[in-house]
Sequence to fold (295 residues):
Amino acid sequence: MSTIPALAGAPAATHGACAAERAAEGVAERVGRALEAVFDAVAETAAETEALLTRVAAEGRPPATADLAALRPGLHLRLSREELVSGVGFIAAPGLLSDAPAWLEWWQSTGEGDVRPLLLDLDPGRSAYADYTHWDWFALPRDTGRRAVAGPYVDYLCSDEYSLTLSAPVEVAGRFAGVAAADVYLRHFETAVLPLLRELPGPAYLVNARGRVAASADPAHLAGSLTRGPDFAAALERARPAVRGEVRLVPCRPVPLVLVVGAGLGSAASGVRAGGRAASGEVAGRGVSSAPSAT
Fold:
């Protein structure tokens, strides 16, 4: 007799599990669409930069910083057009330009709706910002040839805001030339995705390939913290949902974020910062940190 209720309840339980899986996959898809618009801006910047550098190479000379000024109309357009984008530009690989060892053709929006350039001293003899090659927004596209989401981190250099940076490699004739990138303020990203995460019946949060929490509706995993547990990079590589222990991992295709649904996935590695976000130890976005980043 004791088996009858279990048998009767099994289809309902299965139906509930399937409904939860569909809901998670639907949320992941909508998160992907929200960020894909930002990656579209990154892709446009990469394409314009590749075309520009190809034209310069056809002239038989190396590019210079003055050549990159041709990118500015497009960068300004993307800043005005894309609601989530707070900064956008091209970051040159060291040695690419004939007149500067390093360069950021970077523009950002202001609170008044204007755009302004980011002006940095990149002299390696006196600037802490000269070597940006170890930062994830630069290193991941360079090393993998793929798009990346870095952060969130406190961007003291550009805005004093918690931010995400989305980036993609720029290549000319098969050679890495730098990265195209765009910044998104975390508060704007949360406004877009937290309502989606809260639609799910259990704790849910988003992580990048390194396990850095990008946004969270789970108080146990705060934005900016590191999550120990599954191999999130492998989950993105598989590009399909998977169950790992007590959690379900759902890639937010086509963007490199993973939706984590469930509880009990280890602990956040970083401490809690006032305002409900974790202290990541990172200081600056285009530039500097008190410790190597693990975003």
